[in-house]
Automatic annotation (TrEMBL):
Residue ranges of the TM segments: none
Keyword Protein biosynthesis annotated: no
GO molecular function: 2-oxoglutarate-dependent dioxygenase activity; iron ion binding
SUPFAM superfamilies assigned to the protein according to its UniProt record, in alphabetical order: Clavaminate synthase-like (SSF51197)
Protein's recorded name: Phytanoyl-CoA dioxygenase
Entries under Pfam families matching the protein: PhyH (PF05721)
Cofactor names: Fe(2+)
Amino acid sequence: MMQLHENLFSQLKDQGVVVLPDLIISEQLSAIRYAFECQLQQPSFNAWQGYHQTDRRRLMVDQLLTVEQGFVDVVLLSLLQILVKRYLGESACLQEAKGWQSLPFKDDFHPLHRDEWYCRDHYNEQKKPMSLKLGLYLDDVDSGAFAYIPGSHRDVRDEHGIIDEQSPPTLVTGKAGTVFLFDPEGLHQQSFPNFKKRNAAFFHFFTSDIVLSQNFIRWGRFRQLLIESSYLHSCTPEQLAFLGIGRQPSTHPIEIQHFRWARRSINGLVRGINEGQYWFQRVQARLNRR
């Protein structure tokens, strides 16, 4: 077991991405897949959760630790905790848990990038903070797979200061239940084309003392990590800390920016739908009494 840990950590440190061995049992996978699909049945207005659409190709589901016990169990896998704490330090913990459905597409709509989660101006002349993300496929993936440029997390540059982005990416394909860990400072993307809808979950780990990107703070990202309390009944203090219990609360208010120009029209439409549903139920109840 120790040799397995060492091999996985060495690959993560050297390549920036590593596929973990099969960790999720079939019953657990079935439960989280069903719960995730339920969230995709309706947009998140006038109902508990649901999805929201961040761009044309993705339907986003936030706060996965409120959706199903299995998502909490994935975060608490002992192998994952060992690798994350060894890579980031003992104080690293979960900061975000979300997933999305990727719709079919043929173009490179999501090009190679590094995640902008921390304030790059603050760390311009300092050592850059580190984080790790865990990816979990909820469907079989043979197209539109996660792609990662091996070694790009080390920020190796040539004499002109340019990163070689031409090295072939590592494609993470696999069956539902495939779990992989990667350093988001490396260049990555969802490859293309993507021929069918697919669901995936992602979890972000880092320490709580990092100065975050103002862009994400304004939108409320990383401000809240919600967990269904009944999922925590058997957790140890160490596990609770790894789940983010004990994080310092954010003092930044959320600035809602989605569709500001159309907010009044959208609100009117939603209220019209609610009013129509009310009158439909009244008529239905009266007919049932006859």
